[in-house]
Structure formats: C-alpha cells, structure tokens
Amino acid sequence: MKFLFLNGVNLNMTGLREKDVYGTQTLEQINAEIKAYFKNDVCDFYQSNLEGEICAAIQNSQKQGYDAVILNAGAFTHYSYAIRDAIASVSVPVVEVHMSNVHAREEFRNKSVISEVCKGVICGFGKVSYILAAESFKL
Ligand code: DQA
Description:
Blueprint: E1 2-9, H1 19-22, H2 27-37, E2 42-47, H3 51-63, E3 68-74, H4 81-88, E4 94-98, E5 120-123, H5 128-135
Helix pairs in contact: 3-4
The structure holds 1,3,4-trihydroxy-5-OXO-cyclohexanecarboxylic acid.
1,3,4-trihydroxy-5-OXO-cyclohexanecarboxylic acid binds next to strand 3.
C-alpha cells in the first residue's frame, strides 16, 4: 500500500518540546521506525507548519495515488476549517491521529473540527498511533 504520513504545525518540534507529553524521539526518528515497520509498503512523510501546505498535500494525495493519509494536524485539528474542507474534497481516506490523548488534556483539545470528515480517529498511543492508523488498512 502507499501511505502518506502527514504532520502539521509544531510536529517538527517532537522530541524537543513537552517531552513528558510527546516523548523524546524526534519526528525523523519516529518516521524511520514507521518506515521500518511498513517495510513492504510505500511510506512517504511530510511535515509543515503552514496550513495551506497541509491542504495542498491532502489535495495532491489523490492524484499521487495514496491509499490513505495518516494525518496528525497538531493544533490545526482544533480550528482549521480549511483542512477539514481539504479532507472532504478528496476520496482518499484520511485518519486523524494524535500522539497524546487529546480527551484527557485541556478542554480546547477535546474538540476536533476534522474528525467528522476523517475515516477514523486514533489518539493516545504516542508514535504507535501512526502505526495503528496505517495498520487498520491492512487488516
Ligand atoms: C497533537 C495534539 C494537539 O492538541 C497538539 O496541538 C499537537 C499534537 C498530538 O499529537 O497529541 O500539536 O496533535
């Protein structure tokens, strides 16, 4: 299968910020583990702090032939109607993931404006959230 692992705002700081919440591994290290886990699949990785670039990556995922997009939109999750509309505009299934359990944190993180247009939501399993989301397409 062909997966796009897409990370939004501030996920480039993983391993450096709030280590008690997001762990000590960098995004590059996590991505390398995901690539090794799915060694027989195509795994591409993209991170941007810019909302429009995340929208463009979602739009392009369709013509690039991805079977699924695994999306950790970061804080965009909680307010980006633009990303929500981008997800709704493609037929590629998008899974919302979070490393932390967003329901056990601040109230503003309890609300996602993208869940409704995503195939499913996985949160709270650290880097394993990404793997569980992609693995779901293989079961
Ligand atoms: C996050 C949770 C979001 O609330 C937060 O803004 C992030 C990371 C997570 O992976 O747990 O940047 O998406």
